[in-house]
Specification:
about 250 residues; alpha/beta; four-stranded mixed β-sheet; two-stranded antiparallel sheet; binds zinc ion
Length: about 250
């Protein structure tokens, strides 16, 4: 992987950062049964301040870290001296998982409206894999299973399963959220733990290979109904059976 540091980083900081990413890449690839040599062209742009990260990120997203499939890079705000562990920790496997999953199969092209930092919207043609719902679910599920990380929403930190235990989910919640519009219709602290916990359930009960087959078969340019049909055919259970099994497993 290639690293471009922008700002005030010592040689020790840089080495720590690079070592962490190389370790995380190998750990994630092992779990996802992918060859880590296929990801040598990932680029990291590291900034010591959040505004610089936002302006260099091609989509100008406000978050601390973003994965961009085109040009296959991660833009990351990292301050090794900050007291907040989320900012000072050199490990941050989430975006790496997104990039690795993006190479599961040949991506398709999808047109979407995106919010930008100044408050407006832009239309982008994105290279896509799976749906936004499942991309997010996989990344956070792997963070939970492999790295033991908790999920933080509104300054509160809990495991994804703990988040879900306190919520009610309809037995067609999957159909309501599987595509981008549905996914965006729900609050993050409700739908993000669900997609992550449900992905975790599928991976641990049916295996990563079957999960990956499902992951690359569903698409944003298919209807929610068609995507659900694909999931039901691959796992040999109906949507409501899967939701029941998941919820009884929590
Ligand atoms: Zn994500």
């Amino acid at each position: 992987m290639k690293y471009f540091f922008n700002g005030n980083f010592s040689a020790i900081n840089k080495l720590e950062f690079k070592t962490s990413q190389e370790e995380d890449l190998q750990t994630i690839c092992k779990f996802l049964k992918e060859n880590y040599l296929n990801y040598k062209n990932i680029k990291f742009y590291i900034f010591d301040n959040l505004e610089k990260k936002q302006s260099r990120d091609p989509n100008h997203s406000i978050s601390k870290a973003s994965a961009r499939f085109e040009p296959f890079a991660i833009y990351r705000f990292w301050n090794p001296l900050d007291n907040d562990k989320k900012i000072s920790d050199s490990h941050f496997p989430h975006e790496l998982i997104h990039l690795i999953a993006h190479k599961f199969t040949k991506p398709y092209t999808w047109e979407v409206q995106l919010d930008i930092v100044t408050g407006g919207k832009i239309i982008k043609k994105l290279e896509m894999q799976s749906t936004s719902f499942m991309q997010e679910g996989l990344a956070i599920a792997v963070e939970d299973i492999v790295f033991g990380l908790k999920l933080r929403e509104h300054e509160e930190e809990k495991t994804i399963d703990e988040w879900c235990k306190n919520q009610q989910y309809a037995n067609n919640i999957l159909e309501q959220s599987i595509n981008f519009d549905g996914f965006c219709n729900f609050d993050n602290d409700y739908i993000v733990p669900f997609t992550a916990s449900f992905s975790k359930f599928l991976i641990l009960n049916f295996g990563i290979e079957k999960y990956k087959t499902m992951y690359v078969s569903i698409r944003e340019d298919k209807t929610p109904k068609d995507n659900i049909k694909i999931i039901e055919d691959i796992f040999h259970f109906s949507q409501s059976e899967l939701i029941n099994q998941w919820s009884n497993n929590l």
